[in-house]
TrEMBL record, chain A:
Belongs to the DPM3 family. It is a multi-pass membrane protein. Keywords: Endoplasmic reticulum, Membrane, Transmembrane, Transmembrane helix. This is Dolichol-phosphate mannosyltransferase subunit 3. It comes from the Eukaryota. It comes from Penstemon smallii. GO terms for cellular component: endoplasmic reticulum membrane. The chain crosses the membrane at residues 34-56.
UniProtKB/TrEMBL annotation, chain B:
Residues 11-179 form the Glycosyltransferase 2-like domain. It comes from Penstemon smallii. The lineage of its organism: Eukaryota, Viridiplantae, Streptophyta, Embryophyta, Tracheophyta. Its main location: endoplasmic reticulum. CDD domains: DPM1_like. Component of the dolichol-phosphate mannose (DPM) synthase complex. GO terms for cellular component: endoplasmic reticulum. It is an enzyme of class 2 (transferase). This is Dolichol-phosphate mannosyltransferase subunit 1. The keyword Endoplasmic reticulum applies. Its EC number is 2.4.1.83.
């Protein structure tokens, strides 16, 4: 099944649930009408939260940059010794 | 474990375009970190004008023409077809794909190989977004774009891997051949398409942490057009996978 179909199915199921809530009025109708709005808002909040948390906990590795420079010096030394023309930059 | 490793051969495909210095460094580092492993390096150069191919020929003199293979193409023809081209010349039963710009460090190759042997996975993909992984050299804007893109893709595609656009991966050769033939995207959307299609086909995918030091020599770019390409890629994957 194409992924878009899965997502559509999920949305249709949610709509069906919502309509049945409207019909049966288990909870007051005025609340039920607002549910899709809450859904969209919480989806947006979820997205922003995930991006925010991801940004705060973004793994960085400044030490790796230093290690890489050491590796580069080592590699250049070896290759020069073998007569490989890697240039002077 | 050593027994299994002796039977396996790893073909490391490195596409290049104007990577004269970087390709020399990376080949040195691969040989340094992969001792006691049977492997070959396949350099697919797209007619670089800076003499990348001359350097590779010199490296063949140092390491041997059977270990460093130069399989050039006449002009810039894109990343996806570079892998297909390299794959045609690969003699290993496993294929590693990595960038030549030193953002992918060969010191992680043993952990890819170890993970594959331990789990029997069809694909081992490097991820920057877990403990032990990381990125260096990105500004806040780049980090924000990357996180946003990732959350969007995770929410919409449920891919089952944490780093979709990373391109440091180890594949079983047959799996790569199968997946690559159904991928049509360009650029780094291609990397995303590969892993999403592999995931949908039910292949066993494992992850290992890698660090990513943004390119030391040369420049990388991420502009508005890349973001548009990414969003188009996302929609494309939504409706086709």
């Amino acid at each position: 099944m194409k992924h878009i179909v899965k997502i559509m199915t999920l949305l249709v199921a949610l709509s069906a649930l919502w309509i049945s809530l409207l019909q049966t009025s288990i909870i007051p109708e005025s609340y039920t009408w607002l549910l899709p709005l809450y859904f969209i808002i919480s989806l947006g909040c979820y997205g922003l939260l995930m991006v925010g948390v991801g940004l705060m906990r973004f793994p960085t590795c400044p030490h790796e940059a230093i290690l890489l420079q050491q590796d580069i010096v080592e590699a250049k030394g070896f290759l020069k010794g073998k007569g490989v023309d890697i240039g002077s930059d | 474990m050593d027994e299994t490793m002796k039977k396996n051969k790893y073909s490391i495909i490195v596409p290049t375009y104007n990577e004269r210095l970087n390709i020399a460094l990376i080949i040195y580092l691969i040989f340094k970190h992969l001792k006691n492993v049977d492997f070959e390096i396949i350099v697919v150069d797209d007619g670089s004008p800076d003499g990348t191919q001359d350097i590779v020929k010199q490296l063949q003199q140092v390491y041997g023409e059977d270990r460093v293979l130069l399989r050039p193409r006449p002009k810039k023809l894109g990343l996806g077809t570079a892998y297909i081209h390299g794959l045609k010349h690969a003699s290993g039963n496993f294929v590693v794909i990595m960038d030549a710009d030193l953002s992918h460090h060969p010191k992680y190759l043993p952990s890819f190989i170890k993970k594959q042997i331990e789990t029997g996975a069809s694909i081992v993909t490097g991820t920057r977004y877990v403990k032990g992984g990381g990125v260096h050299g990105w500004n806040l804007m780049r980090k924000l774009t990357s996180r946003g893109a990732n959350v969007l893709a995770q929410t919409l595609l449920w891919p089952g891997v944490s780093d979709l656009t990373g391109s440091f991966r180890l594949y079983k050769k047959s799996v790569l051949e199968d997946v690559i033939s159904s991928c049509v995207s360009k650029g780094y959307v291609f990397q995303m398409e590969m892993i999403v299609r592999a995931s949908r086909k039910g292949y066993h995918i494992e992850e290992v942490p890698i660090t990513f030091v943004d390119r030391v020599y040369g420049s990388s770019k991420l502009g508005g057009s890349e973001i548009v390409e990414y969003l188009k890629g996302l929609v494309y994957l939504l409706v086709t996978t």
